[in-house]
Design brief:
Layout lengths: L9 H12 L12 E5 L3 H18 L22 E7 L2 E10 L9 H13 L4 E8 L2 H4 L4 H14 L4 E6 L4 H7 L3 E9 L4 E9 L3 H9 L8 H6 L7 E2 L15 H10 L9 H10 L2 H5 L1 H13 L1
Parallel strand pairs: 1-8, 4-5
Antiparallel strand pairs: 1-2, 2-3, 3-4, 5-7, 6-7
Length: 305
């Protein structure tokens, strides 16, 4: 008697997983005027930060609730940081943040994986970190996060990025490696900021198109990740306002918005170094004239320096 042994190869598991989750199906029905864009207004940013806070709180990643009920970091003050949002008319229902590497600020992952990231930097790689992905439970079945991934992917290519880097909970590693073809970057470590273990992964954009074609190019349309990311298709989804999603016209926040998020609502700037504060002062000079709290922070750093 022959015993049946199911096919457990990565390609087979990949196909089954995509089909079962209907990952590439358009599920935008009943979403009011669906749109996708990079957040620009204070309202869009506040909705995105609040959404991440609520979802992280439910997952136990936020140990001590804060009065602002928003989740943001010093990286969100940087002009290059892009907060991608999926909207149902005026309501943000999914968000993903793309943080660009810099000598002065580095990446959030440097807390755990500085050595691994430096190995990429030493090879002259341009890095970004993906973080703060959040979708409320009632919207997850629609797979709207796939559209954010698509937009983020093309924006990274537009910005000549070499590597997309992420930290994920170990239970999600198989998904990112099997479906999106991420590779190992660093071993499992405990991440105290969220009180959970993390694993570092990277996606090499220099050769990802060929890998996607190899793995997905011959599959049916409903499993073809290559076509989803590399062929233009017509969907119900359009960039908000009819603008080109890949053009972030002005990454600078206005002084009032910076004051609102980083001084009035949070104490994010208290963890900045003197050099980081000097840089922030140089790109947001309006704060020096309008915000007494900001001036006090600058004076404190100047005294300590």
């Amino acid at each position: 008697m022959t015993t049946y042994v199911p096919d457990r190869t990565p390609d087979r598991r990949r196909t089954i997983r995509i089909k079962r989750s209907a990952l590439l199906q358009n599920k935008l029905e009943e979403i009011d005027r669906p749109s996708i864009k990079i957040a620009e207004t204070r309202d869009e940013l506040e909705q995105a930060f609040s959404l991440v806070y609520r979802e992280y709180l439910k997952l136990g990643y936020i140990k001590e609730p804060n009065p602002s009920e928003m989740y943001l970091s010093i990286y969100h003050i940087l002009p290059e940081t892009a907060v991608f949002i999926f909207k149902s008319y005026l309501t943000v229902i999914c968000t993903l943040t793309q943080i660009f590497d810099s000598k002065l600020f580095g990446l959030p992952m440097d807390d755990l994986y500085h050595e691994e990231l430096n190995a990429l930097r030493n090879a002259s790689r341009k890095l970004v970190e993906l973080s703060a992905l959040a979708t409320p439970k009632q919207a997850r079945w629609r797979n709207v996060f796939m559209y954010l991934c698509q937009a983020m992917y093309w924006y990274a290519i537009y910005k000549n990025v070499n590597d997309l880097c992420i930290m994920v909970n170990p239970k999600h590693v198989d998904f990112y490696k099997t479906i999106f073809l991420f590779e190992d970057l660093g071993p499992e470590k405990y991440y105290p900021n969220v009180g959970a273990p993390a694993v570092a992964l990277r996606l090499d954009l220099d050769d990802i198109q060929g890998k996607l074609r190899e793995k997905y190019g011959t599959l049916d349309f409903d499993c073809d990740m290559y076509s989803f990311f590399h062929r233009v298709t017509t969907t119900q989804l359009t960039p908000s306002g009819g603008e080109d999603l890949l053009v972030k016209k002005n990454g600078m926040l206005d002084a009032d918005t910076v004051r609102y998020f980083f001084i009035e609502k949070t104490n994010v700037l208290e963890k900045a170094t003197p050099d980081q504060m000097n840089y922030i002062r140089s790109i947001y000079p309006g704060l020096n004239r309008t915000t007494g709290e900001f001036c006090n922070i600058l004076k404190l750093y100047h005294f300590q320096g």
